[in-house]
Amino acid sequence: MDRIVFTAGGGAARTLEHQATVSNNLANASSPGFRAQLTQYRAVPIIGAGLATRVGTVAATPGADFTPGPMEVTGRALDIAIQGSGWLSALMPDGSEGLTRAGGLQIGADGTLQTADGRQLLSVDNQPVVVPEGASLTIGTDGTLTALGAGDDPVGLIGLGQLKLSDPNPASLVRGGDGYFRVQGQPLGQPVPADPLVRVVSGAVEGSNVSPIEAMVSMIDNGRRFEMQMKVVQHADTNAERANRLLSAG
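Structure tokens predicted for Flagellar basal-body rod protein FlgF (250 residues):
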């Protein structure tokens, strides 16, 4: 078969992979704390009979865009947004530590402070934060937690510890299928070091850093590229058919 078919077909497959990434980003344009996934193409040598100069193309996702998203003031006591770089730590089902910037917090049925999807947040001593029933929670800029019981005098504030805030090297972060980031190579059970310089804003949440306009433009660009590659395949098929006719006529 004409080699141009393999070339155009491979390009079309990579375009579809890129389109899937862009679609996922666009679908999370309104997800709090979401980090856009990046895609890049790279050449890979083709192993097999023929010259060593033959290469193919693969689409890779080298990481995420860690640019902070817009901050939206909500006034809700359990909403927090991280200023600049930094992460909240949550306890994952396998015992590992997941990092997130989604600061829409809640108090679970078991009284622990949790993320919006039910993951327990960790304190600086790597333990879940337990909030007294009916208490009003206040979160300081350094993640310090204080609670005031219903009807209690303000002097009766109770210290609940401090949220764990970390700031690992972005190059070491890997996104999991659940949307949480992990530190690559971090042994299970070994906590991520806390960073005392990370600060949060109470009563606000950070939005996604995905630009819907840029995502839509990228989707249109991928659609046109895919259409062009399919036309190349069609032309190759037409040329092959004409060649067969000529050979048959002879």
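The two ends are 21 Å apart (CA to CA).
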